[in-house]
Design goal:
single chain, alpha/beta, ten-stranded mixed β-sheet
């Protein structure tokens, strides 16, 4: 006869076993994001000059998404879209506000991030690298540990992150000094090193691997936000070379200008970091339990004084960072989960950063917030039926005059500038991936449909009021 107390013990043990089994089925999640890496910067996406053997291997062992979009064409809003699962017209941070209005570039209390959703679901959560959505002082509402991360190591604001050899980094809310000797330029940590000892992304790679090793027994979400190959803008202005890197690696002997060597070397270094992570996951027996996503926060930059024509970083697309054509927003994306994501496959499913929150919640068995613009791409990842699709994707850009863009039915790109009633330029991506030919006159009904959507796509925020610049209007002397 089993006594009541014994029964309770057995039921409790069974529950613990069941819960641990359920937790084991939920994958660890690693989101690795480069900064200003173009669609065409990787060998597996068509790069011919820079070698990326580890990312090419990741693609061979996983799935390439060929129609994947960043949240925005510049840093902060793209990251805000990623964190909140809301598209560019709904998310909290819509642009790079910088020192003029730091509170406008910070998530607020009550915002729900993917880190919060996963933390509530029992995941350990960490951010290593560049944040850009909160800082000390006026922007402290957006500090990482107020937005769902258990642990943070890196840069809080992007001006500081321009400097790859900083004299300090943040560990949680504490400044941790480094041995680099820095010539400051402007405020918020910007500048360049005159004595360069510690390269920040080397430190981030070590920290990311350490985090995985120390948290391998529990489900975790690691947001590894690299800075390479972003330029050191201040160094470029002062020294005409923003490609700041410890050495030129395999490109040291090339007959190229130093900014070109540095740009290639940064991408090669980035590639090596990813290879180290994949090797560690295999070594620790975590490969079949860990979904790794690799992507970039927006299109490629031209701010290191390097030669874009040498590398063709936008691939077949038009434009770079700060463009609403696909060169500025379509980014490489590779998904890797051996045994579940089929090796050597390619998906044309159209998705964006906003879809990460829904996907992560889906994989973790967590409830996603109601008011998001996120459709899980788990079916596309795992080769399942029933993949949902967006009718529209949306982007905007505030610098140099407000502009809007939308992608309709995964095919038709509409871009509006000059005013809220300006004609929409329309591009048929199915027949014109470079978006060179405006077909609004040939398809006026589609241009009109996109134009009507653009009027309703965004919620109003006082910090991000549209300031249109009328085309052709002369400046007052």
């Amino acid at each position: 006869m089993i006594r009541p107390l014994t029964t309770l013990v057995l039921l409790t043990a069974f529950a613990l076993i069941s819960n641990s089994g359920q937790a084991a089925e939920r994958p660890n999640l690693i989101w690795i994001m480069a900064d200003d890496l173009g669609y065409g910067d990787l060998g597996c996406f068509g790069q011919k000059v820079i070698a990326t053997p580890n990312l090419d291997r990741m693609a061979a062992e996983g799935m390439k998404f060929t129609h994947f979009y960043a949240g925005a064409t510049v840093c902060a809003p793209s990251r805000s879209v990623l964190m909140t699962g809301q598209h560019h017209g709904h998310t909290r941070v819509r642009g790079n506000a910088g020192k003029m209005n730091p509170a406008a570039q910070a998530l607020k209390e009550g915002d729900v991030t993917v880190a919060k959703v996963l933390k509530d679901a029992g995941y350990q959560t960490a951010l290593i690298g560049k944040w850009g959505l909160g800082d000390e002082g006026a922007a402290e509402t957006g500090l990482p540990r107020k937005q769902g991360f258990d642990y943070f190591y890196g840069y809080l604001n992007q001006s500081h992150a321009h400097n790859h050899f900083p004299d300090y980094l943040w560990r949680n809310e504490t400044k941790e000094p480094l041995s680099n000797i820095v010539t400051p330029v402007g405020e918020n940590g910007g500048g360049y090193a005159t004595e360069a000892v510690h390269f920040s992304d080397d430190l981030f790679a070590d920290e990311a691997l350490k985090y995985v090793t120390e948290n391998k027994d529990a489900p975790f979400f690691l947001y590894w936000s690299m800075v390479v190959p972003h330029a050191n803008n201040e160094r470029n202005r002062e020294l005409k070379d923003g490609a700041e890197v410890p050495d030129y690696g395999p490109y040291a002997d090339k007959d190229w200008p130093t900014p070109d060597k540095g740009q290639a070397a940064m991408i090669a270094r980035l590639d090596s970091y990813v290879g180290r992570m994949l090797d560690l996951l295999k070594k620790e027996g975590l490969a079949e339990k860990t979904l790794v996503i690799f992507t970039s926060d927006n299109g490629p930059h031209d701010e290191s004084n390097h030669d874009l024509t040498r590398f063709n970083p936008s691939g077949p697309f038009t434009g770079i960072k700060r463009s609403l054509t696909d060169g500025g927003i379509r980014v490489p994306m590779i998904a890797w989960l051996p045994g579940q994501v089929k090796a050597g496959t390619e998906s044309g499913h159209v998705a964006s950063f906003a879809d990460w929150l829904g996907t992560a919640a889906d994989l973790a068995g967590a409830k996603a917030p109601d008011k998001i613009d996120s459709i899980s791409f788990k079916p596309a990842l795992l080769g399942q039926e029933g993949q949902g699709k967006h009718e529209f994707f949306y982007w905007e850009f505030h610098e140099g005059g407000f502009k809007q863009a939308a992608l309709y039915q995964g095919r038709w790109k509409g871009i509006r500038q000059g005013g809220p009633d300006a004609m929409v330029a329309l591009y048929d991506q199915q027949n014109d991936v470079s978006e060179k030919i405006n077909v609004a006159k040939e398809h006026p009904e589609i241009a009109e449909k996109i134009g009507a959507y653009l009027k309703t796509a965004r919620t109003e925020l006082p910090e991000w009021e549209p300031r249109w610049k009328q085309e052709g209007k002369k400046k007052k002397k």
